[in-house]
Amino acid sequence: MSSLPESIRRFEPSRRIRHVIYYVAGLVLLILFYTVAYNYALLRLEGVDQSIFASFEFVIQTMTTTGYGQDSGIWSHPLMFLFVALIQISGIAIGFFTLRLIIIPLFTGAEVNLDDRLSPKTDHVIICEYRRDSAILLDELRELGIDYVLISSSREDAESLSNRGYAAIHGSPQATSTFERASIGTAKTVITDAGDANVDTILTVRGMRPDIDVIALTDDSEMESILRTVGADTVLSPHGVLGHRLAEKAVASFSSELRDTIELGGDTRLMELPVSDSSELVGRSIRETKVRERTGANIVGAWLDGELQLPPSPDAVVRPNTVLLVSGAEGALKNLSEFTRPPRSFTEHERFVLVGLGEVGHAAKAVIEESGGEVVTIDVEDRPGVDIVGDGGSRDVLVAAGVESAGAIIIGVPDDSIALLTTVLAQSLNPEIEVLVRVGDAEATQKAFTAGADYVLSVPRVSARMVAKELRGEDVLAPASQIRLVRVPATPFSGSTLGNSRIYEQTGCRVIAIESGDGQTVSVDPQWVFSGDERITLVGADEAVQKFLKRFDVSPTDLAR
Fold it and tell me: Rounded to whole angstroms, how far apart are CA atoms 485 and 560?
């Protein structure tokens, strides 16, 4: 038997449609109940053996108030009169509910009170004017089990999110009444991403709850001190972080210096190593690379053909632009980086082309210059720091910037279409160039890889991960590849060995570090018996980490970088 089309199997009805489905299903069940009950009551109370279909007709006539007469002469028992009256009253009530919940919203476009859709909130997060892809952040919070209310000044956006099942209301985040509707009295955190209105929003919140934690997101790093002055406890600049990471990846491709590593305890670190096209590892299986024997580092995971393998199959073949997830001491990781990066070394004369000198570009430029590299900047506006004024999507402009001889190009323009075009042009001019791209739409990530990018970060994904880290103590190793790194208490595994815990088999997460109760890092041994006082560090894809947190009901603790 053929399966259902993918579009049908993946169909997710909006909250309003679900309400209609529940309503209709409930109405059908009520009618069936009344039919059977009425037919039974006639037989037991009045001694009349009537067809079930005749009883069904009576119930429909009564509930729709269209009238009846054929049965009125056979009622005599008081309970029959009471039962018929109940059917009549419920029929009228159902008529009003049908009009309010279905007819008016579906056919007249009447406004729906979004507040009525909210469940009681406590210990939740209030999000104000999230200007990125709201669904990505809200899905992140929902998967982490964090309750929330999103406030949007756009009724259209609020209704769209609410109809898709998200807890969203319409209102101004500068009005105290809006926060009262969002139950600020029982909230634990307020997140504001209101742009120029951030200051007003923070002052409103502080006037109502001086003790509540406030997280502010901004695309202007210069606003950090101002936002902290007016009351923000934490200020996040996703564009700055994104630019910094892109540049770190670009420099790391040519430098033996370790960058962007995460300390797991002691001398053990975890990091990503993209494999360049010219690396000697390309074309070999994981087993044939003999990484552990040659360098002392361990390959704990790898992105192969777009799929994360934890651990990778020993027979999996390393391809160009494969990303290895490795752990080990600093010396071991340095040894391994020699095999993954291009044969030429990073020098102070290495040229990097930077397209777009906004917040992302400035952050990337600072990292490159600090590393001693030469950077040529392109921007459509003639502003300080711009070397070539022009469109990065122009072949002539890229040639003028020296793309043909550059080691890497960082594309940080806000327009995804231009970013994709620039990626293709850069690859055509210099097939050996490393291409690192920022995209504003998470769905454009795969398009960028298809266009020839070596590394891609999306603003919505990075922003959501930064917020998740602040709220739950999670750390992010690679937002683009959706790898997560979390440290959790080992309480659920007390008395069990690591091998018997079957963490990987049950969730897909891999334990890469164990910290004993006294703070000492111990070796990852399958025979280690958990006392319950340890903390374990796990790595996995989005779905795997979410599955682990739900299955074992634990919360991440802080993870040092």
Answer: 11
Q: Is residue 417 located within the same domain as residue 362?
A: yes
Cα torsion angle, 280, 283, 285, 288, sign = negative
Please give the tally of structural domains in the chain. 5
Q: Which two tokens stand for residue 94?
A: 């159902």
pTM: 0.63
Q: CA-CA distances (angstroms) from residue 539 to 136, 486, 503?
A: 21, 7, 11
Average pLDDT, the chain: 80
Query: The tokens of 184 are what?
Result: 């600020």
Rounded CA gap, 501 and 31, in Å?
51
Task: Give residue 131's pLDDT band: very low, low, confident or very high (50, 70, 90).
Answer: confident
Residues 40-92 pLDDT 10s = 888 888 888 888 877 777 777 777 766 655 666 676 776 776 777 777 777 77
Alpha helices in 51-196 (DSSP H): 52-63, 78-98, 104-107, 134-143, 155-163, 176-181
- For position 453, which CATH number holds? 3.40.50.720
Please identify which residue in the block is written with the tokens 């690396």. Answer: 279
Residues 172 and 81 in one domain: no
pLDDT tens per residue across span 247-302: 877 776 655 555 566 776 667 777 777 777 677 888 888 888 888 888 888 888 88
Give the CA angle between residues 91, 93, 96 to the nearest 5°: 115
Domain holding 38, by residue range, is 13-106
CATH code assigned at 504:
3.30.70.1450
